[in-house]
Amino acid sequence: MVKICCIGAGYVGGPTMAVIAFKCPNIEVVVVDISVPRIDAWNSDHLPIYEPGLDDVVKKCRGKNLFFSTDVEKHVCEADIVFVSVNTPTKTQGLGAGKAADLTYWESAARMIADVSKSDKIVVEKSTVPVKTAEAIEKILMHNSKGINFQILSNPEFLAEGTAIEDLFKPDRVLIGGRETPEGAKAVEALKNVYAHWVPVEQIICTNLWSAELSKLAANAFLAQRISSVNAMSALCEATGADVTQVSYAVGKDTRIGPKFLNASVGFGGSCFQKDILNLVYICECNGLPEVANYWKQVIKINDYQKNRFVNRVVSSMFNTVSGKKIAVLGFAFKKDTGDTRETPAIDVCKGLLGDKAKIDIYDPQVSKDQIQRDLTMKKFDWDHPMHLQPSSPTSMNKVNVVLDAYEAAKDAHGICILTEWDEFKALDYKKIYGNMQKPAFLFDGRNVIDADKMREIGFIVYAIGKPLDQWLKDMPAVA
Ligand SMILES: NC(=O)C1=CN([C@@H]2O[C@H](COP(=O)(O)OP(=O)(O)OC[C@H]3O[C@@H](n4cnc5c(N)ncnc54)[C@H](O)[C@@H]3O)[C@@H](O)[C@H]2O)C=CC1
Ligand SMILES: O=C(O)[C@H]1O[C@H](OP(=O)(O)OP(=O)(O)OC[C@H]2O[C@@H](n3ccc(=O)[nH]c3=O)[C@H](O)[C@@H]2O)[C@H](O)[C@@H](O)[C@@H]1O
């Protein structure tokens, strides 16, 4: 029986390995992590991450050919294929701070693999890493190998949170990069055979190592660039009376452009887009390509602009101050169907509103109060000025309430900000909500989930991203 071990039981390691175990009953899969609470949760009825369909897949294989363990060394030692799916955040200190990927976790995993291995292994980069990381990993493994043969493969993951299981079951493609040597080709074939259990072989792309590593950064940069492009257009739509939904639709109908990933929003979030683009920017700078670096930097700058623009719109619409006013924040996760809040635009929007002394009541169906408090008190790293940390003042947390439903959040509020596109926000009784709010009652839709005209009929003053402005908003222009 082939044995797979995955180091890192996070958003990628957990679901990816669960699907491999589910689709390959002849393979034993062990997911290991240094975090005891995380592994305990994977072994419990309350998995550490919320992902539609995940519970089902885990329940079907856990204890059969899928295991979660903290005994990292034992399972690495026994494995034929070791996936490394540890976190690769942006460095916050030292060389490249604010841009470069922090490979500390990766390096320590590689050193541990070299230390404990007693047989040949294929080591798979699952984490998103800078191009050429495999070369560094190879050096670590080879210098400590005691005669053991390691083959490094790059097999980046393209799943999106909230649809992870769907994406893993039916990936657009699987990408495997390896050394162009007979041993490298053999390792690529071995990994290809794993995926071939359920992915059509023509969708398994095999490349050299550097192309695979760079393709992952490029894919995320292209995706984020589409969002920044449509968000940039949303500002122009508001200035001109065009409707961004109509523009996206018309543009996306061109088959060369396509309709996906053109939804204007309050800004993109998530643990990867910003980090991976910053990483790309750093790599470009290190390779003497400042023009290319600046090009990609703009994607993040527009994202920051969009979040600021939203806050400014809220404040300016409400007579240029939200001081002492209650604002209901509906949605805190970075997108629907996940409880993940990493880099969620809600953090910046809430901090912006608190900066103007608002009182905010937050409701999200999947994010806990503790998590929201951690996020809002965490110092924010300013990637553009790496020496600056922007703390949230301790007093402003007194002005934050985390509540259990949208109605409670909106009661007596002056305004509502929709920051995550949860389906339930489309189905709320807005008449009832309006009845319980201060007047004039404002509705700021950062995700374009509500029917603005219907809301106006109820009596709300409505702002929706990239939509024609009503007279009120035209009279109170926001300064971005
Ligand atoms: N979150 C996502 O949707 C996607 C993430 N990625 C990439 O996958 C990688 C992992 O991301 P996530 O799963 O979101 O991170 P995560 O933070 O959820 O999980 C990483 C796990 O690795 C563990 N870990 C760190 N060092 C370890 C070590 N030496 N030994 C054992 N365990 C160790 C941590 O305790 C943590 O549980 C990142 O490089 C990310 O860029 C790629 C595609 C999608
Ligand atoms: O490397 C990663 O981590 C992953 O990053 C993204 O996945 P994810 O961040 O989970 O979620 P997305 O669906 O891409 O959404 C990211 C952000 O963009 C926003 N978004 C997305 C699409 C859109 O049209 N408009 C928009 O504002 C979302 O609301 C969210 O805040 C990519 O979609 C995955 O392919 C990739 O594997």
Automatic annotation (TrEMBL):
Gene Ontology CC entries for this record: nucleus
Residue numbers annotated as active site: 272 (nucleophile)
Keyword annotations from UniProtKB, A to Z: NAD, Oxidoreductase
Catalytic activity as recorded in UniProt: UDP-alpha-D-glucose + 2 NAD(+) + H2O = UDP-alpha-D-glucuronate + 2 NADH + 3 H(+)
EC primary class: oxidoreductase
GO-annotated biological processes: glycosaminoglycan biosynthetic process; UDP-glucuronate biosynthetic process
Enzyme Commission number, as recorded: 1.1.1.22
Residues binding NAD(+): 8-13, 33, 38, 86-90, 127-128, 161, 272-275, 342
Gene3D superfamilies recorded: Cytochrome c1, transmembrane anchor, C-terminal, NAD(P)-binding Rossmann-like Domain
Pathway: Nucleotide-sugar biosynthesis; UDP-alpha-D-glucuronate biosynthesis; UDP-alpha-D-glucuronate from UDP-alpha-D-glucose: step 1/1
Domain UDP-glucose/GDP-mannose dehydrogenase C-terminal: 328-452
GO molecular function: NAD binding; UDP-glucose 6-dehydrogenase activity
One Pfam family linked to the record: UDPG_MGDP_dh
Family note: Belongs to the UDP-glucose/GDP-mannose dehydrogenase family.
Protein name, as recorded: UDP-glucose 6-dehydrogenase
Taxonomic source organism: Kalanchoe fedtschenkoi
